[in-house]
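thought: user wants a sequence for this fold. calling inverse folding tool.
action: design(structure=
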């Protein structure tokens, strides 16, 4: 089970438990509170009616048809009241009156008259001078039990009559109201609570999903960052998540240490492998020079030692450059300089090699092309590209250097050399570190580092480089209908 599902599940469980607690609280608190309000109203009504019927009780008129008609007219009065969106159209109360001994002398339902109610709590407590209240199972007009789940609350009030200036207790009036009559209000409150709880639950689950997704996404970012080996990866930063930032920083520190160790191991292994071949050749030539050889052979072996020494120096220099480039990727220092002059400077540095190979160098360079870039790395890039072009260009053939503005934002450097095409299998690997093709002149391979440096420099300058074979097409009017290899570099100004 993913962490997203787990977080969402536990959030949902907490929300569900909260809603269940709210429902329990409603049943335990809201319903009793509603009934307390009803009891308060009945107590007031009972005392008002006790005052109104006191004279009728004293004069013995409560068992007359006129008194009963008056009470029935009051209880059967039609209402048209919209109370909290509930339409109330009748009075849901009943009244009975007892004498001073607790015997029922009037019952609005006509079923309890003559019965002894002196033991019922509402009458009994009131006759004792206390607050009288009871709740009993409801019955219908015929006196049948209406069910164990329905009850009626009775509130009693004493009936006093002034005799010789002294208040005398002459009876008790008790008003009953079925609890089911207030059920619509309780039900409406329950329905509203359920609807609101449902919306709260849905919104809470949605927010929980967002929080769970954010946590999962953040953890995934840290995981992917930890798994990624590319040193250009930026350490992820999370807003309002100090702990995740600390985890990311810990991973960054650990990764830097591991990368430094792996970096050293990788370069030591590579350097050992690359140095082995020229060192072996130098050692063999040196051992042969110890013998008594003709002068011509001695010069040949000495030349061999010089060439392999130069190869070692070139390899070490380029590996140092590659190390410097990879370990300082975010320290490119752009400056404005004349790219046209820099290209000419690079060509001047290779003039002796160009002249020795009798290569014809053709130029189409816009003058005073100013660019903002790191001059040192652009110079290394141009030198490496030119080195490769010269290595693969046969003697007496041509190379062509071109520098133009593509638009107001980009410039393009093109270097074309007449040579055999690059094999199709090698084109996708041409920029891979340590990959190289044998040179036509001596069938030896280079270090395979130069073009890797070129690609990294161009990418760090937000440019593009492409190497392709050109077959039977004119690159410029100076070299019509020829074939070879074209290197295209685009750089932002």
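)
observation: tool returned 493 residues.
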């Amino acid at each position: 089970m993913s962490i997203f599902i787990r977080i969402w599940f536990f959030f949902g469980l907490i929300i569900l438990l909260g809603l269940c607690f709210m429902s329990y609280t409603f049943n335990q608190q809201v319903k009793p509170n509603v009934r307390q309000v009803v009891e308060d109203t009945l107590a007031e009504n009972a005392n008002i009616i006790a005052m109104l019927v006191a004279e009728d009780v004293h004069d013995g008129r409560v068992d007359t048809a006129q008194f009963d008609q008056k009470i029935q007219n009051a209880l059967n009065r039609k209402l048209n009241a919209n109370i909290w969106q509930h339409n109330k159209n009748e009075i849901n109360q009943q009244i009975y009156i007892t004498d001073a001994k607790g015997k029922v002398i009037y019952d609005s339902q006509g079923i309890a008259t003559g019965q002894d109610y002196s033991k019922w709590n509402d009458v009994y407590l009131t006759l004792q001078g206390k607050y009288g209240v009871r709740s009993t199972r409801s019955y219908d007009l015929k006196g049948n039990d209406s069910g164990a789940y329905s009850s009626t609350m009775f509130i009693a009030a004493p009936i006093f009559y002034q005799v010789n200036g002294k208040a005398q207790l002459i009876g008790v009036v008790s008003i009953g109201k079925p609890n089911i009559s207030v059920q619509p209000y309780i039900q409406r409150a329950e329905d509203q609570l359920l609807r609101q709880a449902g919306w709260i639950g849905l919104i809470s689950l949605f927010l929980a999903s967002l929080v769970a997704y954010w946590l999962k996404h953040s953890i995934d970012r840290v995981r992917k960052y930890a798994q990624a080996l590319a040193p250009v990866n930026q350490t992820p930063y999370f807003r309002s998540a100090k702990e995740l930032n600390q985890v990311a920083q810990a991973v960054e520190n650990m990764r830097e240490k591991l990368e430094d160790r792996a970096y050293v191991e990788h370069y030591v292994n590579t350097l050992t492998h690359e140095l082995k071949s020229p060192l072996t050749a130098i050692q063999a030539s040196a051992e042969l020079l110890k013998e008594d050889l003709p002068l011509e052979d001695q010069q040949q072996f000495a030349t061999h030692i010089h060439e392999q020494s130069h190869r070692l120096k070139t390899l070490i220099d380029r590996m140092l450059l590659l190390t410097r480039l990879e370990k300082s990727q975010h320290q490119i220092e752009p400056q404005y300089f004349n790219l046209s002059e820099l290209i000419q400077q690079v060509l001047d540095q290779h003039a002796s090699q160009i002249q020795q190979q009798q290569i014809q160098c053709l130029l189409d360079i816009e003058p005073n092309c100013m660019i903002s870039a790191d001059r040192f790395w652009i110079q290394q890039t141009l030198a490496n590209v030119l080195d490769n072009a010269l290595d693969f260009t046969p003697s007496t053939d041509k190379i062509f250097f071109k520098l133009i503005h593509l638009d107001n934002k980009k410039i393009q450097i093109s270097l074309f050399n007449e040579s055999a095409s690059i094999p199709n299998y090698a084109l996708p690997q041409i920029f891979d570190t340590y990959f190289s093709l044998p040179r036509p002149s001596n069938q030896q391979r280079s270090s395979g580092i130069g073009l890797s440096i070129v690609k990294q420099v161009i990418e760090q300058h937000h440019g593009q480089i492409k190497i392709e074979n050109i077959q039977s097409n004119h690159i410029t009017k100076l070299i019509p209908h020829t074939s070879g290899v074209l290197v295209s570099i685009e750089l932002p100004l």
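thought: summarizing for user.
answer: Here is the designed sequence. The mean pLDDT is 78.
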